[in-house]
Design brief:
By secondary structure, the chain is an all-alpha fold. Helix content is 57%, strand content 0%. The protein has a domain at 2-21 and 35-74. The radius of gyration is 33 Å and the shape is elongated.
Length: 111
Amino acid sequence: MYTLFVILAVVTAILLALVVLVQESKGGGLASNVSGANSVLGVRKTTDFIEKATWTLAGALVLFSVATSFFDNQEVVDPSEVVTNMSAPAPLAPTAPATPAKAPAPATPAK
């Protein structure tokens, strides 16, 4: 079930991206190049269809995303069991502090 909802969400997201690209914006968008659909359906009906498709796909994407979270494959256990069953990490071995290297004695000037 999880895989089905993931596939549906991905397909819906791709379709939504394509429909948004086709929408007519202030600059004309890609919808200005789709003159065949405009002549058959009329400009107003094409715009209505694209807007309805956008809202429908956006709603479907939200629905598939929520459904995917419900059918997630992860096993959920009681949080108190997670805390009591956790093993403590191994303690770090104590290390000797690093000693700084001794600087050579300054050279005395020859007289």
